[in-house]
Amino acid sequence: MELIRGLKNGMVLQRDMGTNACKITISLRGVQHPQPSLGKLEHLGGERYRLTGIPVGGPYALTLADGTRRLEFADLWVGDVWLLGGQSNMEGWGERGEAELRYDEAPLQKIRAFYLDDHWESARSQLHLPWTNHDTALAEKFLAGRGLTLAQRDCLTLADAGVGPGLFIGQYLCEQSGVPQGLIPCAFGGTCMQDWLPENLTPTSQYRHTLRRFWEIGGNVRGMFWYQGESDLNWLCAAKLHDRMEHMVSAFRKDFDLPELPFVQVQIGRTQGCDDCQLDRIAAWHKIRCLQAEMRFPLFATVSAANATYQDTIHLDTPSQRCIGKAAAVQMCALLGREELANPVLKHIEIRQTNGHLPTNKTSVVLTYDHVIGELCADGAPSGFSVTLFDEIPYLFPNKLIHHVVLRGNQVEIVTGYSAEQLAHAFVWHGAGPNALCNVHDAEGRALLAMGPVPVCTV
User: Fold this and answer.
1) Three-state DSSP state, 378
2) DSSP 262
3) In sequence order, what are the beta bridge partners of 386?
4) How many CB atoms are located within 10 Å of the residue 244 CB?
5) For 126, which DSSP code?
6) Which is it for the CA torsion 269, 273, 274, 276, positive or negative?
7) H helices within 110-205, ranges in order?
8) pLDDT tens, 39-50?
């Protein structure tokens, strides 16, 4: 039985933003009136104590001692701690390139991870090693999917693939804040929203797994990053996605006792799988993306993976994981007070007469975006936009009557073959269908959210 919970060698202790010093909760068993060598220890009742007063930075050594026991901890840091939740794209399937291999050989010590086997160490490009999970039911679930048992998990080794966005999130936030960063991997490939709801009391509940890990790291974090949705690809789950997401966010905030915990989610990208080419699955895929784009919870934001490139038919490659990690971290900074860093969001749509050599009855749909850094640009001809009339869907003919797309600053002009009267009843889409090629982004590489159908006359 452990004498202490919430404090481990090598960990990052979450800072209190008011004092810029640590504020975590620990449990001590069989220790009477412990005295810390650093900071202050406040008794909360029973076995619970609050550790405060250790300033941002590190590494520190800390001793907790009473008349008979002495607990020593080394390599402690104080900074910001982040939860990483979701499914396989948060786990990571990208390959380690030369940059990742070099970094992993000499990682930055102030960016650290609480790995799934419950030990702290410097964070590397591969954060999720599911077969090592301290929660054995989840390790068994992972191994069973590969025809292995728990007794065989020592046979598995770190493969070249497995790079997710986590390390890149930590690197950007460390660069921006200058303080140590702690990453808490909690994702599991293939999980649906049902796995993440607080009502799920099964041994493989991701909610319970994340809650346990939260208390193992001192019961305090700065925020949560989320990348999930592909496993809810049916109309029944898609219809419940918004309510389930809101419920999960509220439950985490309540159980963490952090009512203003910020969340940044990644909107799912595209898929190239043959199984996803049926029209009903295409529609469900796009529905999930649109629901994610439309979520409006307090201190919650969504970033786009619409322009990502892929390792396989559904998993992002390492360059895109790097871009997504940075975009998510930038958006988190916006939620925490730097609004100018918010990711691009559609502000206004207008119908405009097309200038130039085209006949006068040809008109444009002009999209204006807020929070564009620099100006909008594209790798090649701008693509990914569709315009439809009435009950049309663009999945088979996404470029119907679109002559070309022009980018000007923070605007996208879609030059169409429709008249102004037709466009008054039209809809605009971005990223319609499971494998739509989207390549428009701002100067920081941040993509535009997939959306649609959005009425042209209402935004």
Assistant:
1) strand
2) -
3) 429
4) 17
5) -
6) negative
7) 136-144, 166-177
8) 999 999 989 999
CB 79 within 8 A of CB 170: no
- Contacts of residue 259, Cβ cutoff 8 Å, sequence gap at least 6: 253
How far apart, in whole angstroms, are the C-alpha atoms of residue 4 and residue 382?
56
For residue 99, which amino acid is it? A
**453 secondary structure, DSSP code:** E
What Cα–Cα distance (Å) separates residue 7 from each residue in 71, 73, 106?
10, 8, 25
Please tell me what DSSP assigns to residue 92: -
Residue type, 160: D
Task: Report the C-alpha gap between 41 and 59 in whole angstroms.
Answer: 19
**Cα→Cα distances 326→93, 110, 171, 412, 422, Å:** 17, 18, 8, 24, 40
Tokens 């970033």 -> residue: 303
| DSSP designation for 240 | H
CA nearest neighbour of 214 among 167, 174, 253, 245? 253
Predicted confidence (pLDDT) per residue in 202-239, tens digit: 999 999 999 999 999 999 999 999 999 888 877 677 78
Structure tokens at 326: 């940075």
